[in-house]
């Protein structure tokens, strides 16, 4: 298929996925901020969210040092058109990419992407985003579910489909890693063994909110049938291949889709993707935690970034 | 104005024409609010499907950017079978002659030698491409897709009860609008399926099939399974929807200039599996932008070396380079003579009588009758550079007078035709509005077309300008089978 078409499909799915995960991340932060915790803890949550998306300088430039309020962060991350990572920017970019290759999409997929964009402004108003953003986040999530479902349900499973899927899972592996990093970072101090009873209770809400943000609360109960511990949360979201939003599951999809479209230039990219998957496949959570979660995730993000760049070079914007 | 009007549906306020009887009866039975809600439904669907066109420099406040809908009118334009048969014959004849003419211009130039068209009319035409001299194109076809604009007007000097079809303009470069013909029909069938069981309307949905067949037919002889692509200037072009739509319907790639490159005089596209050869390019990019090595050096919409590959016969470009020499308004008056010269036939379709600024006698007449004439800039398009005398202010007429005096050869003039009208939904209800028709004629192994075309309607009362960029709308066009 045409390289440019593959490029647009790849980015269409990446932006759709990013919009969804941004909504998930904001939602968990918003839910956590409703817990009876100190203002400082909530503050750390919002700050971490901006840091992990590498958006702190842009945010400070707009709102100043004292502007770190939930309202401002939500506005910035949801409907600020000048912030390329805001939900509105991601959905616009997804739609622009879709429009550039609308002929390569099934009618239903194109109409889904287009409809999401056309409805966005109205939904922002009608869901009472100001009062309670949860309903809006829910809408973003479900539009993403719908778009993914329509793609799977209607697209021919040719190269176009595989590039579309690759974009979804590369983005998801990146986003889940960032979510983990920011959330574990927030409680780093008392990570290995909470001191007081009160803290333990707080921890429960903290970890369950993370699980909920990746739709994994029930999954956790089903898998572990036990209390929520940070180690198991990390294990579930990093190495469980049957957890659909985990790093391992995402990498499996990246590797499999890459294998189908492989060309004369892509051996090295496939090798690196396979190696990253193997590292997850044979990892143990106690080892990862012993070396340091943050270091592990930072390295993981670098490797995912490298894969994205290589896929682009090999297939999407070929230089040879 | 008391000039005679001809309405496609109503012969008089009390009498509906025979081919509209069934529709008119149906329409009279429809409650107003149902039609109103159907209109809204149509608009909603067009938006969701993204059947929009871009207006340069415009910005909407609802975030939809520069994308606008072309208004779609619910009342179809209906043409009876016998009228269409005649029109079809006329179109085949006309397009055949035009293709012969373009071939002649770029080869032996018999028509100039015979003294039928003055040489400078051709060589001084900006659309004449010397690069095409002596180049042989497959099947000797240049205009593979032709959009012929046809209007209907009362017979001059008649009482308005009879009207004739006239060709207003030939579009042989990159005529657009066919996607609206197809989408308007889809919309009508979706909104009013019952109409199509009552009326035998000839289908048009196979147009993309015919188009693909046409494009494949002119592939360079060296390939058995030709690769066809549609070349678009990109998603910000006003007709982008149509480019994407046609590529999708034909199942071929939609490419931009940056996707193509030329190596050893062959054209390739960049794919995820490496370069792939391209045999036929249905281009929706003007000549000027096709190849920066030959035409505009700063164009990024085309592909460097394309023309060289084309001249070597390694790729087909549709429409061919240089077709503009035949659809120019200054060449238009000669088309009836071309039909006689190349085919030895009498023209089936009328030309509108045309005065040419370059002819001293005609110029005198033009300047004396500016307020009765439609004056057109020879190279104008899209309804720009045009004076509609009877509707113009004294100042506008004066402005045009000066322009014509300064450059007489740049203008032609025609009597103001009272274009036929068709009942149309407007704010105040249903009212007659002027319409035209653009059938799309395909020339490959044979000359063929789907029965119908794009009917455009001037939504402003009394307006004769149907272009979408000037506030025109569209209607579904029905060719009724007997």
Automatic annotation (TrEMBL), chain A:
<feature type="domain" description="DUF403">
    <location>
        <begin position="1"/>
        <end position="316"/>
    </location>
</feature>
<protein>
    <recommendedName>
        <fullName>DUF403 domain-containing protein</fullName>
    </recommendedName>
</protein>
<dbReference type="InterPro" id="IPR007296">
    <property type="entry name" value="DUF403"/>
</dbReference>
<dbReference type="InterPro" id="IPR051680">
    <property type="entry name" value="ATP-dep_Glu-Cys_Ligase-2"/>
</dbReference>
<dbReference type="Pfam" id="PF04168">
    <property type="entry name" value="Alpha-E"/>
</dbReference>
